[in-house]
Amino acid sequence: MKVAITGATGFVGSRLVERLHNEGHRILVLTRNTTSAQKVFPPEAFPHLEILAYTPTVSGSWQDAIAGCDGVVNLAGEPIAEERWTPEQKQKILNSRQLGTQKIVDAIAKANPKPSVLVNASAVGYYGTSEITTFDETSPSGRDFLAQVCQAWEAEAQKVKDAGVRLVILRLGIVLGNGGALGKMITPFKLFAGGPLGSGRQWLSWIHLDDLVNLILKALTNPEMTGIYNATAPNPVRMTELSQTLGQVMQRPSWLPVPGFALEALLGDGAMVVLEGQQVMPKRTLEAGFEYEYPNLQPALSQILGKC
Q1: What is this structure's pTM?
Q2: For residues 247 and 179, is the Cβ–Cβ distance under 8 A?
Q3: CB burial of residue 207 (10 Å; 0-12, 13-18, 19+)
């Protein structure tokens, strides 16, 4: 295949590129920073990879490069939990997903020949937050800011079906790997100062990075997959269990909770990403026959930390 990828230099995207490259596929990386992308994907190591500059929210000649691609994976989006949610930052978070997806869909619609599939990221934030409700792909959306962002994001992706292109939307949970959210939790544990964030009762719907990449590959190559799938492991955990399991795997105590007010002081409204959560089950993902390598947390963390 030839696959176009946005967000390719990120935590998920870079692993996906490695897998596609190792399997002999050609890759088109759409990036805002070609210099950075060339460092991540040096040409001597990735001979079948093309890097193309683009501005995600602006139409341009980059859109012509979608023609001839067999599939498109749209992972791009402004980070959600790294800065305070000022009005400007919230607008960036929304625009990067809504307008970014709109421009990708426009490019697919005018491409000749067209890609056969768009795999578009979304997030479990679609469902809103709850300590007691269990969600699956049929559950209604929440009403908070992240739920509204996901609704707008997915609505733009849905328009690709008007062009006769198969659409798979993956609602991502917390992705666990050597980096990302887990990378930020590991350092305190190394210093014997690890513990749960906030109350510890909030649900974390997680997925191992390798399982997510496998799911994206299945979505690209299986023509029977269409619609919404939760990209989460079938065994979500509460924050306390994540912290305790992480401590066990690292042979460190999990005794120093990070109070919610400390995170709120740092991130403002953005702290809700880690202080609140949702229990999300991958009902359609399992029905599609997807087999998880890491359905349970402890083996997932053991594999990840064995590589750190």
Answers
A1: 0.95
A2: no
A3: buried
